[in-house]
């Protein structure tokens, strides 16, 4: 049986275009995949076809996509299909992820060839804003009384300048061209860009755009390029219409010279111009080659044929002038389409009336059991900020219909957040007359008033004590970080009860991250007499002032972004890649603006120059935007507005029936079965499982809710030793000569990098102990160093419904057999301890994975206790058998089962001295009777 027959055996429904896309593997291939045409299925099957046919080993295939969620889905679906066709290869070795994650992976591997150092941190959208704010005076240049001569407001200048900084990198613009352009704004901009880059790399940080640039520079180093390229034979890129210029150049470089590159996408669904993406990449892809094969997937398996007819008419309603591949999406010819009003409109007298009619429709669909769950309905809007979504939300609330809209930027409207900010404002003295000129005066005053209505006597006494502590600070400091106050507050009502509510707990977790960001970016370790005034004015006057006005998103579960039991209210961008039985599209009366200024200023200096005209940018983008919205619908598409829609909606709006005057009887007869959203398997690291076994509450708070720790000196010590020992191993693998002096330098560099990552400093004595452990290991283990095969080896085991991941510290080889070393920095444990048993099970799993991956047995397994001075005391050998491996597998299954069942109750309290003393939740657990742990510190709280 050949590879195609094997795949068709488990996917018999493949059509001829999909088969062609799957089997056309060599040379450049462009797959234009319209909405609902089985794009992901085709990509997954194509990957397995390459593997089963023997054209490539898993590690020789690179598969990249736009979002982490899409990458998870591809990973799991490839694995599922591999099991169905009984493919025995190691599919986890596929190079799979977002372009950013793959760039990051290679940068870490070839770090010494880049401008970055170990422990570099990657700025996300929020932290990039605060990085510019932190270095504002050195980056942003004032001119004519305005910043860069354009913006008078500081935060507005930051928001506007960041797209310019990113675009310069993504379009690979020669900065000297901007300097010499003769344009005053561009001249000042070039200076800002240089200052930004200087500060970025001085602090060992990198933004998403620079991740790509640094990787691109690695590819232009011929030595590194050959090392990377030699292990990549086939490249597949999903969502190619959403890539930018530097991503295109990376992909083309990696594909050369065989050009076994397949890009998949749909120019009609290009949405991310505002993030630097350009539809130009997919439209011009064939021009890079002499023999590019073009395949179109046009059979839609998602939507009712009436929906397809309507959005086809909409997308073809203008002259695309060569900026679109000609195609027509067709319904599945084998499907049966019941006769009912699949597309209609709602036209309210005003927003309140419109929302009322929308909610009446949703209630009708649920009461008549046309839909099974509230989550079968998605309301898609251009924006979900309050000015766009509040009338829907208010009406859903009035009708007791649950809704989910985490990106409405209303995080600061949650009661738990308001109460926390009220407590902080009182503790640090940001209230009363100080608020007079503050733009968040009303918010803080309302929050304090709300606190007064619910505050308990114990919480009031706590706040009073903390206020007095800060007021008495004259020449000294408190052993308290700003984040420590947060964890102490959690011990009191109402905050302690908020931790029992999952949504509120996630919001509290976000608050812990925000405070941590503030401490990190303003370099504040503890509260002192010198910085208490700075904290007061900058925490509120700058930091929260900006966040409250800009708004931030609430928590979204990356593994399950569409929770059951809630009507979904989301942006059209959020809905990309999703589908729903019922889609209600609003904002049809609103104007559609396109960000043009950045492109207008910078694209003339790109190596490619400009592309569409400004008129075309607006016309094309608005049709693509709403085409994505309309094509999310499976069974029912509803267009809703409180005013006359914009004229360009006429092709889809004309002649639509209006609810509630549509044919309800035929609609009543329908049953729209939910198609479950794909929920990827969750990964559990072995360190996470160890945390659960130590304390289920710690797992819940730190790993499930992802609270940001405040106390992490112990983490820094262990990481410092691990990182420096890894430097030794890496130097040995690279055949570099080094001395103990080099080791001292590596440890110092690692220490600085760990501090920059937000960990708390350790004492000079502890640093000396860490260095002593590392040098002692180096001197006593020359024979081990001679046998190194790999260091920091990522391993994983895929189970039926989850994935276990881990990292082997050191892998050595002797007589064709492996030896595993796992380094531990705490004091050596007794042989019969519970912790040793956990470590043993972990090593058993490592041994099993290595045998499966390499076909070679693991001869010996060791724990190496770096705190022991003599090697014979440090090396603890552990032998295992097949029975031990099976028992370890059952053990991990049992622990994960408890986690998945949300069994986080502490039945056996942990060792309070070893576990609780450094845990931020010791106040909460002590106050709530989970542990009995009394210290002077707790009494003061």
Automatic annotation (TrEMBL):
GO molecular function: 3'-5' DNA helicase activity; ATP binding; DNA binding; exonuclease activity
Entry binding sites for ATP: 33-40
InterPro entries given in the database record: DExx_box_DNA_helicase_dom_sf (IPR013986), DNA_helicase_UvrD-like_C (IPR014017), DNA_helicase_UvrD/REP (IPR000212), P-loop_NTPase (IPR027417), PDDEXK-like_dom_sf (IPR011604), PDDEXK_AddAB-type (IPR038726), Restrct_endonuc-II-like (IPR011335), UvrD-like_ATP-bd (IPR014016)
Gene3D superfamilies, per the entry: 1.10.10.160, 3.90.320.10, P-loop containing nucleotide triphosphate hydrolases, PCRA, domain 4
Domain (UvrD-like helicase ATP-binding) ranges: 12-304
Any one GO BP annotation for this protein: recombinational repair
Organism annotation: Desulfurella multipotens
Protein name: DNA 3'-5' helicase
Recorded GO CC terms: cytosol; DNA helicase complex
Catalytic activity: ATP + H2O = ADP + phosphate + H(+); Couples ATP hydrolysis with the unwinding of duplex DNA by translocating in the 3'-5' direction
EC number(s) stated in the UniProt entry for this protein: 5.6.2.4
Domain UvrD-like helicase C-terminal, residue spans: 305-577
Alphabetic keyword roster: ATP-binding, DNA damage, DNA repair, DNA-binding, Exonuclease, Helicase, Hydrolase, Isomerase, Nuclease, Nucleotide-binding
Enzyme class of the recorded protein, top EC level: isomerase
Family affiliation: Belongs to the helicase family. UvrD subfamily.
Domain of life: Bacteria
């Amino acid at each position: 049986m050949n590879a195609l027959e094997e795949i068709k055996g488990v996917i018999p429904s493949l059509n001829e275009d999909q088969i062609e896309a799957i089997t056309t593997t060599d040379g450049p291939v462009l797959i234009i995949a319209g909405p609902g045409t089985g794009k992901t299925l085709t990509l997954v099957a194509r990957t397995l076809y390459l593997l089963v046919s023997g054209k490539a080993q898993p590690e020789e295939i690179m598969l990249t996509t736009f979002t982490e969620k899409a990458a998870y889905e591809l990973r799991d679906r490839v694995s599922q299909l591999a099991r169905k066709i009984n493919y025995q290869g190691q599919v986890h070795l596929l190079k799979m992820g977002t372009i950013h994650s793959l760039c990051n992976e290679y940068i870490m591997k070839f770090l010494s060839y880049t401008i970055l150092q170990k422990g570099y941190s990657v700025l996300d959208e929020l932290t990039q804003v605060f990085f510019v704010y932190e270095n504002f005076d050195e980056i942003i240049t004032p001119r004519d009384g305005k910043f860069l001569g354009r913006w008078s407001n500081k935060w507005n200048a930051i928001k506007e300048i960041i797209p310019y900084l990113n675009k310069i990198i993504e379009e690979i613009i020669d900065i000297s061209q901007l300097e010499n352009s003769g344009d005053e704004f561009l001249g000042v901009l070039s200076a800002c860009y240089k200052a930004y880059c200087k500060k970025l790399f001085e602090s060992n940080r990198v933004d998403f755009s620079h991740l790509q640039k640094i990787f691109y520079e690695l590819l232009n180093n011929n030595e590194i390029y050959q090392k990377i390229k030699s292990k990549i034979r086939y490249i597949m890129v999903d969502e190619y219409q959403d890539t930018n210029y530097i991503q295109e150049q990376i992909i083309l470089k990696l594909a050369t010279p065989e050009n076994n590159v397949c890009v998949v996408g749909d120019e009609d669904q290009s949405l991310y111009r505002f993030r630097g993406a350009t539809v130009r990449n997919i439209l011009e892809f064939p021009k890079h080659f002499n023999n590019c094969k073009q395949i179109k997937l046009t059979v839609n398996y998602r939507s009712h044929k009436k929906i397809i007819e309507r959005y086809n008419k909409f997308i073809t309603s203008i002259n695309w002038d060569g900026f679109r591949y000609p195609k027509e999406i067709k319904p599945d010819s084998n499907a049966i389409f019941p006769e009912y009003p699949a597309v209609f409109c709602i036209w309210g007298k005003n927003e309140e009336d419109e929302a009322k009619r929308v909610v009446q429709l949703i209630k009708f669909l649920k009461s008549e059991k046309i839909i099974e769950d509230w989550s079968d309905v998605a309301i898609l809007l251009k924006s979900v900020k309050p000015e766009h979504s509040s009338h829907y939300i208010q009406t859903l609330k009035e009708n007791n219909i649950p809704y989910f809209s985490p990106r409405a930027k209303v995080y600061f409207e949650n009661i738990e957040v308001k109460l926390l900010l009220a407590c902080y404002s009182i503790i640090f003295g940001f209230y009363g007359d100080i608020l007079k000129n503050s733009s968040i005066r009303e918010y803080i005053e309302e929050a304090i008033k709300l606190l007064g209505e619910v505050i308990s006597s114990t919480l009031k006494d706590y706040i009073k004590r903390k206020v007095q502590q800060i007021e008495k600070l004259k020449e000294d400091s408190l052993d308290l970080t700003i984040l420590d106050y947060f964890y102490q507050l959690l011990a009191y009502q109402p905050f302690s009860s908020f931790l029992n509510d999952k949504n509120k707990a996630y919001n509290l977790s976000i608050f812990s991250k925000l405070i941590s960001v503030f401490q990190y970016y303003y370099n504040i370790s503890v509260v002192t007499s010198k910085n208490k005034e700075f904290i007061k004015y900058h925490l509120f006057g700058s930091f929260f002032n900006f966040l409250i006005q800009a708004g931030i998103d609430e928590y979204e579960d990356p593994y399950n972004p569409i929770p059951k039991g809630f009507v979904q209210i989301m942006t059209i961008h959020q809905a990309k890649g999703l589908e729903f039985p019922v889609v209600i599209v609003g904002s049809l009366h609103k104007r559609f603006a396109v960000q043009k200024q950045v492109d207008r200023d910078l694209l003339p200096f790109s190596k490619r120059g400009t592309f569409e005209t400004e008129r075309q940018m607006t016309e094309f983008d608005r049709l693509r935007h709403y085409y994505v919205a309309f094509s999310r619908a499976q069974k029912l598409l509803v267009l809703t507005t409180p005013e006359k829609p914009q004229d360009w909606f006429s092709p889809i709006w004309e002649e639509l029936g209006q609810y509630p005057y549509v044919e309800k009887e035929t609609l009543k007869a329908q049953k729209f079965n939910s198609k479950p959203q794909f929920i990827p398997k969750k990964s559990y690291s072995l360190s996470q499982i160890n945390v659960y076994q130590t304390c289920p509450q710690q797992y819940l708070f730190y790993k499930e809710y992802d609270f940001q720790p405040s106390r992490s000196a112990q983490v820094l010590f262990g990481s410092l030793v691990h990182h420096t020992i890894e430097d030794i191993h890496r130097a040995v693998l690279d055949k570099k000569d080094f001395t103990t002096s080099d080791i001292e330098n590596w440890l110092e560099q690692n220490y600085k990098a760990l501090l920059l990552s937000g960990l708390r400093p350790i004492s000079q004595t502890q640093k000396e102990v860490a260095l002593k452990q590392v040098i002692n290991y180096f001197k006593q283990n020359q024979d081990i160093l001679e046998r190194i095969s790999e260091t920091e080896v990522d391993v994983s085991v895929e189970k039926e419904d989850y994935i276990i991941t881990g990292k082997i510290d050191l892998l050595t080889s002797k007589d064709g057999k492996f030896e595993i070393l796992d380094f531990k920095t705490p004091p050596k444990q007794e042989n019969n301890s519970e912790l040793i048993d956990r470590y043993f099970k972990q090593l058993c799993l490592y041994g099993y994975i290595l045998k499966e991956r390499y076909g070679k047995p693991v001869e010996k397994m060791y724990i190496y206790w770096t705190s022991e001075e003599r090697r014979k005391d440090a090396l603890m050998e552990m032998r295992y058998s097949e029975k031990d491996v099976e028992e370890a597998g059952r053990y991990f299954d049992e622990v994960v089962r408890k986690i998945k069942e949300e069994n986080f109750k502490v039945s056996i309290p942990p060792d309070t001295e070893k576990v609780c003393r450094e845990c931020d939740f010791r106040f909460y657990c002590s106050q709530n009777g989970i542990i009995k742990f009394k210290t002077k510190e707790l009494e003061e709280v």
